[in-house]
Amino acid sequence: MKTKIKITTLVNASKEKVWRYWTEPKHIIKWNNASEDWHTPKAENDFTVGGKFVYTMASKDGSMSFDFGGTYNEIETNEKIVYTIDDNRIVEILFESTDDQIKITETFEAETQNPIEMQQTGWQAILDNFKNYTENN
Predict the structure, then answer these.
(1) Cα(133)–Cα(135) distance, rounded to whole angstroms?
(2) 18 within 8 A of 127, measured Cβ to Cβ
């Protein structure tokens, strides 16, 4: 059984804005990085059940890059996204209204190459960038 990692954040924005910024490539390229020395120069998103997405993640100095992609299994507008990463790990994202905020809970199956803490820290950093970008744009 694969280890599951859960991360969460609260975003001060409407659910519709959160959903739009999470799913539209023109926004994804603005927040999808774990540190300031990385960026996402390209994002493609066929946001339908059975559709695929690919985000090119690259170091800003050009020394490294990789594609992060997967296939959507389930989409409930403004509520839930489930997808399978290309390495067959499952990711589930929930969007819940709490007072004037949206709570995003992302649960993903850990990979075996890197320590759990490193994976959690990296994915949380990306989620924190999403929060910051969405609240300030």
Answers:
(1) 6
(2) no
